[in-house]
Structure formats: C-alpha cells, structure tokens
Amino acid sequence: MKTKVLLTLLTIGLTLQLTAQRGSRIAYVDMEYILENVDEYQQASKQLESKAAKWKVEIETRQQKIDGLKNELQAEKVLLTKELIEEREEEIQAQEREMLEYQQDRFGPQGDLVQQKKMLIRPIQDQVFNAVKELGVNKKYDIIFDKSDVVMLFSNDRHDISDQVLRLIGRAKKLKKNKGKKAKTELEEYTEPVNEAVKARADEKKKKAKTRAEQAEEARKKKIAEREARKKAYEERRKKLLAEREAKRKAKEEKRKQSEQDKNKEEENKNNSPDNG
After folding, report:
1. d(CA 270, CA 263)
2. Residue 28: which H helix or E strand, with range?
3. What's 13's DSSP letter?
4. Is residue 260 domain-resident?
C-alpha cells in the first residue's frame, strides 16, 4: 500500500513538473462529490442500502437461531446418546454452512452488494468520462485527474471542474430526452427486427435462469425435507429415550418402595411374634 502511494505521488510530481514547464492546463474532478449530487444515483443507492439492511437482518436471524440450537444442545447433552449428539451437531454445522454461503452471496467480493454497486455506478462513470472528455477538448486541458483515485496532499479549488462536469451531465440528459422522442419515431422501422432478436435472446436467457432457479429451489426443498425428517426421527428417539429413562426411574422407585414395605412388614411380624410376647 505504501509503495503504491509513493509511486502515485512520484508520478503526479513528475507530471506536474513537466506540465508546469510547458505552462500546461491541469484540472481534477471529485467523483464522490459528483455522485452525491446525481439524484438517480442517490435514489438507487438508498434502495441498495435498504436491501443490504434486510440481508443483514436475515443473517442475524439465522445466527440467532444457530446460537439457540447450540445452547439447547449444550443443555440436553446429559440426556442424549452419542449418536443423537452427533446428529444434532451435524444439523447445526449444516445450518452454519448455509448461513455463511448466504453471507458470501450477499456481501462477499463477488456478492450481490458489490455487483449491484458496480452496476449502479457504471452509467454515472460513463457520463463523467464523456463530460470530462468534452471539457478537456473544449478548454484545452492537458491533464484531468480523478481526486478519488489519486492521493492529493493539496489541491487548489480553482482546478476543480466537478461542477462543470455535473452541468454537462445535466445538459446531456436533457438533450438525450429530447432527441429520444424524435429518434424513436425515425428509428422504429430499423430497430424493430433488432429488438425482436434481442427480446428472443433475453427470453431464452430468462428461461434458462428460471430452469436453474427451479432446480436450485427443488434442491433446497429436498434438503429441507431431509433435515425435517432427521429432526423428526431425532425427536422420536429423544422422546423414546426419555420415556425409557422415566420408566426405569419409576421401576426403581417402585422397587425401593416395595423393599421398604417388605422390610416394615417383616419388622412388624417380628414384633408380633409369640417369642417376643
């Protein structure tokens, strides 16, 4: 990390030195500032944050359930056989694996959150790039930096063209909207066959995705059914074991009472014996 920062600073220093000697024009944009001021990005970002919050709640709920199963097993271990304990531990481990997989699918390096953020920011980045390119050509800038990717120890605000980029993005949106209405009529006859082909490919892709989703759902249901069957079998064995232990306890208690009764009767007979008279 330190090496990367040093190389970046060295590159910037050499660039600034060379451009200063030629009297070149330099500017920079602040991507974070631009994103904060693009309404579409902010709205979509809030929706994504709401999704992420729901995913976190789901993960926390699953973790609480797993913790509950662990505590329950710990409390009942003295009543269970080794086989039943191993089955319960296997069940807990399976749920832990599912929870971790879900966590990776949502928040991992290739998870939904990262991928959707990339999809969210890409159109804005394209607009910024086009606006920067237009400003660079029109105002004859030699170098335009992105402040978000460069370690800028000091930057003069007069070099910041972020607001100009935002204005160009806003103008481009209006032009695109107006041109879109006109172009739609002119290009309909040319784009219809293409749109049909695109639609057919999209439908085929959806069909395949649906098949995969159905297979995954079937596998999930099968796994749940197997888990429920194991859980039911475990509960039945547990009840049977507890019933057997309770029966043994009662039999032992009855035997003890009978022994005491026999002993008392024997003492009574002994006391009533003529020899004792």
Report:
1. 10
2. strand 26-29
3. H
4. no
Q: Which two tokens stand for residue 150?
A: 């460069």
Q: What is the DSSP letter of 274?
A: G
Angle between helix axes 112-138 and 39-76 (nearest 10 degrees) is 160
State pLDDT tens for residues 38-84. Answer: 888 888 888 889 999 999 999 999 999 999 999 998 988 888 888 88
| Three-class secondary structure assignment of 44-110 | HHHHHHHHHHHHHHHHHHHHHHHHHHHHHHHHHHHHCCHHHHHHHHHHHHHHHHHHHHHHHHHHCCC
Report if residue 202 sits inside a domain: yes
Two tokens, residue 192? 């219809």
The answer as to whether 204 is a domain residue is yes
How many domains, in total, are found in the chain?
1
Indicate whether 108 belongs to any domain: yes
| Domain extent for 205 | 28-215
Q: What is the pLDDT of residues 197-240, one digit of tens each?
A: 546 665 776 676 667 667 777 877 787 787 778 777 777 877 88
